[in-house]
Amino acid sequence: MQNMNTCSIIHQFGKLEDVIELETRAIPFCGPQDVLIQMEYAPINPSDLITISGAYRGRTQLPFLPGFEGVGIVHQVGDNVLQFKIGERVMPIRQSGTWQQYQIATAENCFKMDDRLSAQDAAMSYINPMTAIKMVDEIAQVNRADKVLVNAANSEIGHIIIELCLKIGVDITALARSDRSANELSQKFGDQITVQKQGQFISTKHAQTYDFMFDAIGGPIAEELALSLYANGMIVHYGLLSGVPISPKLNQQCPDIQLKLYWLRNWVHSAPYEDVQEMFDKSARYILDGTISTRVFKTLPLENIKDAEKALNDPNRSGKVLLALQS
Prior knowledge:
Layout: E1 4-10, H1 16-19, E2 20-26, E3 34-43, H2 46-53, E4 71-77, E5 89-92, E6 102-106, E7 110-112, H3 119-123, H4 127-139, E8 147-150, H5 156-168, E9 171-176, H6 179-189, E10 194-197, H7 198-204, E11 210-215, H8 219-225, E12 229-237, H9 250-253, E13 258-261, H10 264-270, H11 273-288, E14 296-301, H12 308-312, E15 320-324
Helix pairs in contact: 4-5
């Protein structure tokens, strides 16, 4: 085992390319309850960028090691750890720090990956898939007779929501913000779904047509789209791409509409260990049987992490930017 650990670190809030730094430190000490993980891959998610920007500075103490999702191989276990073996692939969660070569985590915060998954698929099997599964299967409890509206549909989680709904047999309308996104959705899903430009959809008014809307945008757009829901319909709100919250006035505008906010973080930090492991297993089953998938746009070595912002803002990007954490 090498003696040093290259890790990314944030000393001040701001844009990733301006504030991310690489440091070389000693490999973390593995205590009796700990697992030392040699990290393999980690995706760069919106939640990472939001945290780095300082939006959650009330619960983020500087300096901090970024990265909320990623997988690696168990390299060492503490004396009291019986559930993990050296060589198993695991994901550490409930903490940040996946953007480094070696990560230390308590055993109770590590979860086994299905060994049939590739390392890259395993690295992306947590935040987006589990959020989508929880929302479709448990929050909305979508069934075959429902009509579903998905905004920001060409995002990776948008694709997964669509894929899960298609498995059920739901009537889906996917909203795209650009011609390119609309074309990509049509190319992937064909006539299984209806694809519309978001602006055109809003301008044509679809009063009381849908049972559910999965909303990643918020703000006035979500409020306008809410008018297309049936009475007693539901908005499942899980993202804020607009940067503007949904107004409390929505309840006055659409008093019969249910608004459900879903943040995976809240469930992960409160659910029993066994329930979280089962959700990882369910995510893996959906990936392995082809129900859901995640595109990868670019894989960057950790030493090139400052190039991530450019890759993320590439106008032709379709898919995740992954960090490869071992040279």
